[in-house]
Amino acid sequence: MNGDVACELSVSDAAKDIGDLIAWFAPEGPLRDAVLVIYFLCVAAVLVAYRYYLGLLAKGGEPGGSIERQDYDALRASLEDGNLAARLYARWLKRFLDAVDRFFGDAGMADPTLFPHAFGTRAACGRRPPSTAACCSP
Q: Based on the domain organization, do 105 and 57 belong to the same domain?
């Protein structure tokens, strides 16, 4: 009997400690409850997405023409093409790096050289040594 009570107390203490740890990440004051609700909703959304994609990946073994297999193939195709986040990241990174190039005056310079502005090159040059240029030229 005493062992059961001790077990119940330790589980409730552990749950209280975990709750206190989660609450520690929330700010003090009137917004604490709102932040905890947002935390809960984010965790719930991650769990729902995990379960959805786990189920979708499990459908990869279905026969070729089934609806489940079509969903799986659509997921694979979207991952191969790159998702929206990857495309947005690549586009914004390119814009940012182009702005940095314009700021430093390197826009339109040759990319392969280490210091395009210092050497004044405007066209990309090959990186082959002169000994191989004769045998590789058309």
A: no
82: left (phi over 0), alpha (psi -120 to 50) or beta: left
* CA distance linking residue 24 with residue 22, whole number of Å: 5
Token digits of residue 26? 């929330």
User: Could you tell me the end-to-end alpha-carbon distance of the chain, in angstroms, rounded to an integer?
Assistant: 90
108 and 42 in a single domain? The answer is no
Give the containing element (helix H, strand E) for 70: helix 67-81
Higher pLDDT, 74 or 17: 74
Predicted local distance difference test score (pLDDT) of residue 93: 94
Q: Which domain holds residue 115?
A: 84-124
Output the pTM of the full model: 0.42
